[in-house]
C-alpha cells in the first residue's frame, strides 16, 4: 500500500509537471495565443533556443506578438499567411512608432505542425538569439514578463517574404499582456514537443494576464500622418 501511494504521488507530480511545462497565454476573444518553452540545458545562455507556438486567425490579416512592454526595443514576431497553407513568421525589431525592421540577427527554424487549418494560423518554431537582442532581453526569471500584441484584420497580406511591408494596426487591435516565464524552462525532452502539432487545435490555458488597453488606446495618433501605414504601435 505504501508503494502504491508513493507511485500515485509520483504520477500526480508528473501530471502537474506536464500541465505547467510551458508558459502560455490565450487572448480571450481569440485574437491570438502563444506558448513558450526554453530547454533547461540552454536556459542560462543568451543565445539559447526558445521554442514558440503562436496561433492567430488566418482570415484577419496579420497578427504580431512581441517581447517587451513597449514597441521600442521589443523583439516582435509578425504572422501572416504565406503561399498555399504556409504561415510566414517575420522576426522584427521595434524602433518606436514606425514599422518594425526585419531582424536578421535571430534565426528561426520552422517546425512540423506549422500551417493553416480551420481558418487558423499555427506557427511552431525554434528561435536562436531570442533571449537577448539589441535593446532588450527575455527575463526567464520574471513571473510577469511584459509582452505586446497587435493586429490588422484589413491588411490582406499573403506572402512568403519575411521583410514585407505591413499596414498600421487597427485602433482596437493592440495592447499588452504578461506571462509567467518561470514556467517556460522545461527539460530538454519536453522543449521539443510543441504545444500543439495540429494547426486546427487551439492552445488552451493561461499563465499570464491581459493588461488594460485604455492607456494605449488613448494615445494620440498624430504619428500616422508622419509615418503613414508603416507603424503598428
Architecture overview:
The protein has helices at residues 2-19, 188-191, 214-217, 223-227; strands at 23-26, 33-39, 50-57, 62-67, 75-81, 87-93, 101-102, 107-110, 115-117, 120-128, 132-133, 136-137, 145-152, 174-179, 185-186, 208-210. By secondary structure, it is mainly β. The chain has one domain (22-230): Cellobiose dehydrogenase, cytochrome domain (Immunoglobulin-like). Strands 1, 2, 3, 8, 9, 10 and 15 form a 7-stranded mixed β-sheet that branches. Strands 7-6-5-4-13-14-16 form a 7-stranded antiparallel β-sheet, with no helix packed on it. β1 (23-26) and β2 form a beta hairpin.
Span of the ends, CA to CA = 60 Å
pLDDT < 50 stretches:
1-20, 212-233
What is the CATH H-level superfamily?
A: Cellobiose dehydrogenase, cytochrome domain
CATH third-level topology? Immunoglobulin-like
- Secondary structure tally, helices: 4
The fraction of residues in strands falls at 25-35%
Gross geometry = globular
**SS-based class:** mainly beta
Helix content: 10-25%
> H/E element string?
HEEEEEEEEEEEEEEEHEHH
Cα gyration radius (Å): 18 Å
- Whole-number average pLDDT? 80
Number of strands: 16
Describe how the helices and strands are arranged.
Elements: H1 2-19, E1 23-26, E2 33-39, E3 50-57, E4 62-67, E5 75-81, E6 87-93, E7 101-102, E8 107-110, E9 115-117, E10 120-128, E11 132-133, E12 136-137, E13 145-152, E14 174-179, E15 185-186, H2 188-191, E16 208-210, H3 214-217, H4 223-227
Parallel strand pairs: 2-15
Antiparallel strand pairs: 1-2, 2-3, 3-10, 4-5, 4-13, 5-6, 6-7, 8-10, 9-10, 11-12, 13-14, 14-16
